[in-house]
């Protein structure tokens, strides 16, 4: 009985230097392993302890990296442990199987987006028209599925973000602010739908999940058990649910704690050798696919 572990990556398992939150004395700081290099510079890290835990988790469960990153951005990450058979990119828009996007899944996603929400062109044009160049550093379109801005966070007007969220809500989109990136994502584009598909293909009867942002909420609620760190959008809003464990740790040590919890729950699952974990009711068929 396989256990499926679906986890967000950035600010959940891996961290940029700005997000590490190394608040302890220097001599007590954990040893770090770089897992991503971009333009010849180290970009993302986890602790060496977390690297070992992730390797163990990959051996014990069906580990599925589940990210809003594009495929190109995801593929430059070199995670410890066995290479994942499945990965979810572009917030569920691409389901990678051995590193290659499943064309049938992508076609289902794009068809649903065309039917259920405003077009990417409309949202992109609104962002260009209303975002102030004073605090916008980059405009980006990701995989022809959603848009995001790279902003100067300290200059970003809170009222503009609120107004954008209302505008997007009325058009079937959602807004998420993560660090220096502000995302506008179609509501039907979800990580959870892709995770349900992986569960169907693998026969997993227990799903565990972790994430830190608003775009991870559907993933956490779809899992039988979920964990969130003490930082990020969900922590800032004190978001939780009966099956969610809110951890106190922040920064890279939160990633280590999350991996400990995921590995412990995997090993305690039925058929894994000891203990039991009660599974949530299976999702409705209408929730399973885009």
From TrEMBL:
- UniProt keyword Hydrolase present: yes
What GO molecular-function term can you cite, just one?
A: hydrolase activity
Coiled-coil residues: none
Q: Does the keyword Hydrolase apply?
A: yes
Keyword list (alphabetical) reads:
Hydrolase
| Location of the region described as Disordered in the Swiss-Prot/TrEMBL record | 269-290
Q: From which domain of life does this come? A: Bacteria
Q: What is this protein called?
A: HAD family hydrolase
Organism, scientific name:
Streptomyces pharetrae CZA14
**Source organism lineage?**
Bacteria, Bacillati, Actinomycetota, Actinomycetes, Kitasatosporales
